[in-house]
Amino acid sequence: MKQLLLPIIAGLVLLLAGASIVRTQPHRQETPPPSPPPQAPFSDRVAAVGLVEAGSENISMASHLPGVVERVFVVAGQDVKAGDPLVKLDTRALEAVRAERRAELASRRSAVVTARAQVARARAALSEVRRTLGFAEAVTDPRSISAEEITRRRSAVEVAEAEVGIADAQVAGSEAGVGAAEAALRSVETDLARSVVVSPINGRVLQLRIHPGEFAPAGPSAQPWLMLGSVNPLYLRVDVDEHEAWRVRPEAPATAEVRGNADLSTPLAFVRYEPYVVPKQSLTGSSTERVDTRVMQAIYRIEKADLPLFVGQQMDVFISARGASPSHARLRQEPSDPVAASVR
Question: pLDDT tens digits, residue range 121-131?
Fold first, then answer.
């Protein structure tokens, strides 16, 4: 009996350990997915990923001039009309330059007035010497006036005529200075007008990433500080793998489903192809996804306007490939240019 006691105790310990392990194991239950996976409505289809964008395409706004932002007139999500101000830069330096240009213009205009007065005086002097010359030449008795005096008066007329010419040239130069000053003033006023960034279209502020006091660079930026676009209607930029691009036809029906809720779907209307194939940038995260491929981009119009969609949102797209054959791999549009046709 004593010989069996140790194995019995060991067996009981093993049973207790096994029961403890079983009790502490989590109870795994198969849970349904939070949303059903996307279901393709076509048996023969091309699956792709689409990115929602504005109907006008996403416009990355830029400033004509670099400068510090003084005021922001809009907020993200605000609807604007063409010509509405969006952002105003600090214009104190330009306003000081404008004051200088205005003073310069006033000085130039006063110089024109002075030059014209000089012309009037020179012409009056010319009239006077011409009159005295006429009196001298009208004398018939050569003893009354010498030939030297007549020569002197003729020289005085020539000098007065030259003075009139000089005065006229001074007027022309002063008027040219006025034109230059006016052009300089217009240049400053143009820069003042360009310091206010206005909306080029009727649309909506999609993204706003700048605030008063921040610096707005001139020209394009890697991170646009204000994005604008027309959201009525919304477009979908669909990336089709280059290996399946030949299966996509403009007349083929297509649908798109909202990620996370396959019940929210919409038919798509074909708009155009982007003629240039680009490297793939929109990744799905699938383990079998190839990232070293290129995609053909097709633009579709979203037909349902009541879907809760946002610009930049991804959608699952299915394009019917029924009836597609290698014969559809020809160019989608024949060139109308005879030069292009000869190249082909």
Answer: 999 998 888 88
- pLDDT tens digits along 156-185: 888 988 999 999 999 999 999 999 999 999
Sign of CA dihedral 327, 331, 333, 336: negative
> Is there a domain that residue 237 lies in?
yes
CA 10 to chain centre: 80
Measure the CA–CA gap between 323 and 320, rounded to whole angstroms.
9
78 lies in the same domain as 211:
yes
Residue-wise pLDDT for 92-123, tens only, equals 999 999 999 999 999 999 999 999 999 999 99
Cα separation, 93 vs 241, whole angstroms: 53
| Residue 212: domain span | 68-85+201-227
- Which helix (H) or strand (E) segment holds residue 299: the answer is strand 294-302
CB 178 within 8 A of CB 105: yes
Give the separation between CA 83 and CA 200, rounded to whole angstroms. Answer: 6
Question: Does residue 223 fall inside a structural domain?
Answer: yes
CA atoms within 13 A on the CB side of 217: 8
147, 205: one domain: no
Identify whether residues 160 and 237 lie together within a single domain.
no
- Please report, to the nearest 10 degrees, the dihedral formed by the alpha carbons of residues 308, 309, 310, 314 taken in order: 140
Pairing of β 203-208 and β 226-229: antiparallel
Residue 241 DSSP SS3: strand
pTM above 0.70, yes or no: no
* Residue 73 shares a structural domain with residue 220: yes
Number of domains in the chain: 3
Residue 13 identity: V
